[in-house]
Amino acid sequence: MNTSFYNGVSGVKTYQSGIDVWGNNIANVNTVGYKANLPEFGSIFSQTLVDGNNSPTEDQTGLGSRLASTAISMNQGTLQQSDNALDLAIQGDGWFGVSGINNQQFYTRSGNFSTNAEGYIVDGSGNFLLGTSADNIGLMPDPEDPTKTIPVLTKSVEYVNLTTPQGQGKLQLPTRMYYPPEASTKAEFKANLPVDYGTGQIFNLRAGLIAPDGSKHTLTIAFTKSAEQPELGTSWKYRAYIDEEGTPSSEVLGTLEFDERGALKTLPATFSIDNHGGPVMVTLGTTPYDGLVSIAGADIASSSVADGFPEGYLDGYRIDQEANIIASFDNGRLSSIGKIAVFHFQNDQGLEKAGGNIFRTSSNSGGPHFFTDNEGNTVLGAQVINNALENSNVSLATALTELIVMQKAFDANAKSITTADQMIQKAINMKK
Asked: I want to staple 71 with a disulfide (CB 3.0 to 4.6 A). Which of 38, 93, 181, 335 is the partner?
């Protein structure tokens, strides 16, 4: 009868804990990034029942139970689309890292981030999202107001390689940023100079250029048939100039000769022209039929390509699946300015809850680490999806079923205490 008391009391306490755990799961069924807790039970004591006939098997009877641990369900939650570019979801294994008060480092699957007043990426509790900065943002006088400064992109970066797990820092997104102009250094032309043009007729090719000071200009090459034509092929004179008011230093004169098949006789056909203080190498052809040709009856569209970009201002941000933060500018240029870290652990179950929906490391989880490839470069080991959030992985049907089971077990144990008490009371009365 005493054993029934032990089992009943411990069972009531144990299943009350189970009710609390599953009740908490149900309460967080709509919490972004929430990972369900799974209660695990164990015996407090057990007694071995030995068979008097030396049977090879032994039976045990329990003398109470307890809540041994609460495991973390690492099942992937469903993804929900969002309009916020800083809403992030991890598809696969891994954790976002956030830095709290006193630079304490925590880990979470909740990716509902935003920026604070200073432009740092933070979660709903004000913790800073961790990652590696590209270190390619400086300061310069604001072109629109020289008395103030504006963040400026110092170099264009395609992607960022994460440093060490301990070297991750806060990520800041300027709300306004300047992309300096890139002067044009080369231009390439392709076209079919019309054989049927008469002497004096002009065939123009044009390309847009950017000067070192960021101003926009037009390179024009005017072709006219030479007065004297060879017996086979054609001969053309050209005048290249920058803008109509071009100075002599920005004007180049030359002659091109084509053979009977319409290919340039002299290759490569190149020249340099001054673009308001910056030299531009102009290419008219490097191999036969690759640049300019002069073929009768051939319909070849003209085209021109020049490098260089005008100045631009920040247009917005996006985050790719490799967690690179890409800044886009209104001049069409893109650059990564940082990369969000995705942390991994030897034992995710060993992480300790630190309140809310964040975790911290423990001796059981081990320290955070990054995956690397054969060349030593860090790889995420998962995909980061922006404009999306990971929903709670709690199955409401499973949670309600488990809650009913826990409630029934609680009632049964409570009933066993009442029954044991009645049996003891009867035994006492029998002695009277």
From this structure: 38
- CA–CA dist 247, 410 (Å, integer): 95
H helices of 124-207, where?
none
- The strand pair at 334-340 and 79-81 is best described as unpaired
**Percentage of residues in the chain with pLDDT exceeding 90?**
56
Distance from first CA to last CA of the chain, Å, rounded? 19
- 89/156 same-domain check: yes
Q: Which residues of 313-343 are buried (b: 16+ CB within 10 A; e: fewer)?
A: ebeebebeeebbbbbbbeeebebbbbbbbbb
Task: Kindly report the length of the chain.
Answer: 432
Domain count for the chain, please give it: 3
Report, as an integer, the average pLDDT of 405-428.
79
Per-residue confidence (pLDDT) for residue 324, from 0 to 100: 95
Longest alpha-carbon distance in the chain: 142
**Domain assignment of residue 164, given as a range:** 83-177+313-389
Give the Cα-Cα-Cα angle 388, 392, 397 (nearest 5 degrees): 135
The model's pTM is 0.78
- Nearest Cα residue to 125 out of 141, 104, 140: 104
